[in-house]
């Protein structure tokens, strides 16, 4: 059927409006993620608030010393891949829409990349993630002998409990990558809600019966239930995956799809490596102070410090929520700029749209953040009394310092997400590695002098330096 010029123009306008409407809901999607992350953080706060009442301050300190390392392993082996998946899924969706417009204009019937809609390369990614998760589990078991010091005195069962959680994390991480790439942000937020709610529900009986081991096992339960919900949403409500079993592909199409799948998998894995290293380094940097305090001062002092650290991280949830929806939007805006300008250079024409996304995200973050920061600074001691019944000048001062650190790091998170979205994933990695080295040196130097406050000061200084550097580079690259 011949497409007239007027029909083509109307169809093009309609499709471009659809693309625009699907991308400009940054505030709406951020609102969903902020609400779900706020709920999740409050539930996570309840999770950690209950732990000292069940296993004591020292048990709480041990958990606070183990979980950062466990999270680091999970991120490196599992959670670093989904952001790269989201980027490629978002770009392919945008590319498909633009190609359909071009097809109507030229009356083409065969486009090679049209097979991308039938090619479910994401499931090949899942296979690799499950394999990596078992490698991570084996690594977790060996941590006792790698870390040494006070960590070597902990029972082996703690490390087995950590290892169990890693394969479960692969499922929930993969499903979130799919949902994020398809901009199913509201559905994505539900997995966070279920995961953290499950942790609290199962924490009480497991910790009461099994102590620290039970508290660690409740994390595996949360990963498992959140992952099952993510899989249910994907296969139930996203047509591309819902119709997987009913697809009938010819032998020639299957060969072509395998080639496409292998190509995309390689691209995703290559792109995911610096993201995984960045996220791993970032997670390690956030709680490097706890690891040093646990090693140098012991579980009890680390438990006291953990109270301040836990509360201060409430300020970071807003940037984490916004960054989840920022990456795919910046990636899409970059992809469209390249398509519209017919450019093969992926490092030019990032466009004012991507820069505006960053500016809006920073503005939204600080509008919400600054009033809460003021409350935390003025009422630090009262918040600690109300939360954990603790009244200690060192803990209060640590909370104030860590609150400023969390606020500063929100700038790093949004700037790093912007750089990842336009293809500069290695830059945040180099900067965060610098932060880890600097933070380690400062912790070793300041903790013996100032105690737990030294860990807080080390975190603030290193966070400020890397945040300023990353923000300046992001502004330069987005222009």
From TrEMBL:
It is found in: Cell membrane. Its main location: membrane. It is a multi-pass membrane protein. It holds the Pfam family Polysacc_synt. Keywords: Cell membrane, Coiled coil, Membrane, Transmembrane, Transmembrane helix. InterPro entries: Poly_Biosynth_Transport (IPR050833), Polysacc_synth (IPR002797). GO terms for cellular component: plasma membrane. CDD domains: MATE_Wzx_like (cd13128). It comes from the Archaea. Residues 91-118 form a coiled coil. The chain crosses the membrane at residues 42-63, 69-90, 125-145, 157-179, 223-239, 268-285, 305-327, 362-383, 395-415, 427-450, 456-475. PANTHER family: POLYSACCHARIDE BIOSYNTHESIS PROTEIN, PST FAMILY PREDICTED COLANIC ACID TRANSPORTER. This is O-antigen/teichoic acid export membrane protein.
């Amino acid at each position: 059927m011949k497409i007239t010029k007027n029909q083509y123009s109307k169809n093009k306008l309609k499709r471009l409006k659809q693309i625009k409407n699907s991308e400009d809901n940054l505030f709406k999607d951020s609102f969903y993620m902020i609400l779900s992350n706020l709920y999740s953080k409050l539930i996570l706060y309840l999770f950690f608030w209950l732990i000292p009442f069940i296993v004591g301050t020292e048990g709480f300190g041990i958990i606070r010393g183990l979980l950062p390392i466990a999270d680091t392993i999970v991120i490196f082996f599992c959670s670093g891949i989904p952001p790269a998946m989201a980027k490629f899924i978002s770009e392919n969706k945008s590319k498909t829409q633009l190609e359909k417009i071009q097809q109507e204009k030229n009356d083409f019937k065969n486009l090679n990349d049209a097979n991308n809609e039938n090619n479910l390369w994401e499931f090949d990614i899942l296979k690799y993630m499950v394999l990596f998760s078992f490698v991570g589990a084996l690594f977790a078991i060996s941590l006792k002998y790698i870390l040494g010091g006070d960590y070597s005195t902990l029972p082996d069962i703690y490390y087995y409990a950590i290892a169990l959680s890693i394969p479960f994390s692969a499922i929930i991480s993969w499903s979130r990558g799919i949902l994020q790439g398809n901009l199913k942000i509201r559905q994505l937020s539900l997995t966070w809600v279920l995961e953290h709610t499950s942790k609290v529900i199962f924490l009480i009986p497991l910790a009461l019966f099994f102590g620290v081991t039970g508290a660690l096992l409740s994390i595996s339960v949360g990963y498992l239930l959140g992952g099952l919900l993510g899989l249910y949403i994907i296969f139930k409500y996203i047509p591309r995956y819902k119709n997987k079993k009913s697809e009938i592909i010819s032998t020639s199409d299957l060969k072509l799809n395998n080639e496409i799948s292998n190509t995309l998998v390689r691209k995703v894995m290559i792109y995911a490596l610096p993201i995984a290293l960045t996220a791993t380094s970032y997670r390690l940097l956030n709680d490097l102070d706890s690891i040093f305090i646990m090693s140098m001062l012991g579980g009890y002092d680390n438990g006291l410090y953990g109270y301040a650290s836990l509360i201060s991280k409430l300020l970071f949830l807003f940037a984490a929520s916004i960054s989840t929806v920022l990456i795919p939007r910046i990636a899409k805006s970059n992809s469209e700029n390249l398509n519209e300008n017919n450019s093969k250079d992926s490092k030019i024409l990032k466009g004012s749209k991507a820069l505006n996304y960053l500016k809006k995200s920073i503005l939204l973050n600080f509008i919400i953040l600054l009033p809460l920061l003021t409350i935390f600074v003025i009422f630090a001691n009262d918040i600690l009394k109300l939360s954990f019944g603790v009244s200690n000048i060192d803990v209060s001062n640590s909370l104030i310092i860590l609150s400023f650190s969390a606020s500063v790091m929100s700038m790093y998170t949004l700037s790093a997400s912007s750089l990842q979205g336009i293809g500069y994933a290695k830059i945040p990695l180099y900067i965060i590695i610098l932060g880890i080295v600097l933070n380690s040196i400062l912790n070793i130097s300041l903790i013996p002098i100032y105690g737990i406050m030294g860990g807080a000061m080390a975190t603030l200084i290193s966070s400020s330096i890397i945040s300023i550097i990353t923000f300046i580079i992001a502004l330069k690259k987005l222009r």
